[in-house]
Amino acid sequence: MTVAVLNGLIRPLLEGRLPDWVEPRWFLSTKELLALAPEAEIGWFDTYDLPARAESARRAVKLRWMNTLGAGVEELPLDVFRTNGVILTNGAGINAVTIAEYAVMGMLVMAKGYRQVIRAADRQEWLTDSPGKAELQGSKALVIGAGAIGGGIAERLAPFGVAVTKVRRHPGEGELGPDDWRPHLGEFDWVIVTAPSTAETRHMIGEAELAAMKATAVLMNFARGDLVDQEALVAALKGRRIGGAWLDVTDPEPLPPGHELWTVENAHISMHLSGRAQNMMFIRSAERFLANLDRWHRGEPLHHVVDLAAGY
Q1: What pairing do the DSSP bridges indicate for beta strands 87-89 and 140-144?
Q2: Cys bridge to 244: 51, 266, 281, 293, which one at CB 3.0-4.6 A?
Q3: How far apart are CA 129 and CA 146, in angstroms?
Q4: Helix, strand or coil for residue 102?
Q5: CB atoms inside a 10 Å sphere around CB 217
Q6: Based on the structure, what is the number of domains in the chain?
């Protein structure tokens, strides 16, 4: 029997479907996770308490395979996994549909000034003109990190007539590489960040990058808050050096009450909700985990394996 320590929230989707060679042990609290982790050979340690998840992974001395439904793995002890030969699989693409839809929504909201429309409706004030007059048709978007999410955004923008340029680690025809996109920043109306969080991508959008953008351009971040130098962004937004920002992620999270970013008029903060605007995340994650369990048992390569050196 192989001991699998699993979050009890996923239990209704897995129980009765796990193979007979798996001995599941379910946790519903941080205390239970920390206690069960040392016996785990397979682990699905997802919890909102990210430090506890990392500590549990360090305690899991028997661990051979760790699964997570999240795409980002920067909080996990990747160095420990490398040393111990642990395979890590993530949820890359699990939330791609809803995040891509959220990005299109955000672009339309900002182009049409729809936040001002909602505020006028709350005041019961009838507007006689649209506060936003930009059209997506004919605009240009740079998608930095064209994986499942970035690729999904590009796919959905095509029918709107948006010309999309993708940034990829291994660029194809018409795409830019990780060292090529900065000189082109001034060409785009939308700069959309969907790259993984690593040591190399921290503050990849900083003062110099913001200064290179169009004065009317919008920065959109659906990756992690630390990819953007938030202090530099606030200064650029307040100085109207860029048109605005749509921030699904911030640094820190949650953004505390009273933080300056809440008061910036041309910043839209969507509170990391883009991936949660759906009812399929756990279903997709359970199906992927079960399929990988079958591959594991047959000795086949698992799908969606994280490169522990690259961090994604």
Answers
A1: unpaired
A2: 266
A3: 37
A4: helix
A5: 24
A6: 2
- Radius of gyration, CA atoms only, the chain: 21
- Following DSSP, what letter does each residue of 229-275 receive, concatenated? -HHHHHHHHHTTSSSEEEES--SSSSPPTT-GGGG-TTEEE-TT-GG
Q: What's the average model confidence in pLDDT over 196-223?
A: 97
Tens digit of each residue's pLDDT (9 = 90 or more) over 239-276:
999 999 999 999 999 999 999 999 999 999 999 999 99
> Which contacts qualify for 163-169: CB closer than 8 Å, 24 or more apart?
163/138, 163/139, 164/140, 165/140, 165/141, 167/142, 167/143, 167/195
Which helix (H) or strand (E) segment holds residue 44: the answer is strand 42-44
- Residue 71: its pLDDT value, please? 92
Q: Are residues 68 and 134 in the same domain?
A: no
Is residue 62 within 8 A of residue 253, CB to CB? The reply is no
pTM of whole model > 0.85? yes
The tens digit of pLDDT for each residue in 76-97 reads 999 999 999 999 999 999 999 9
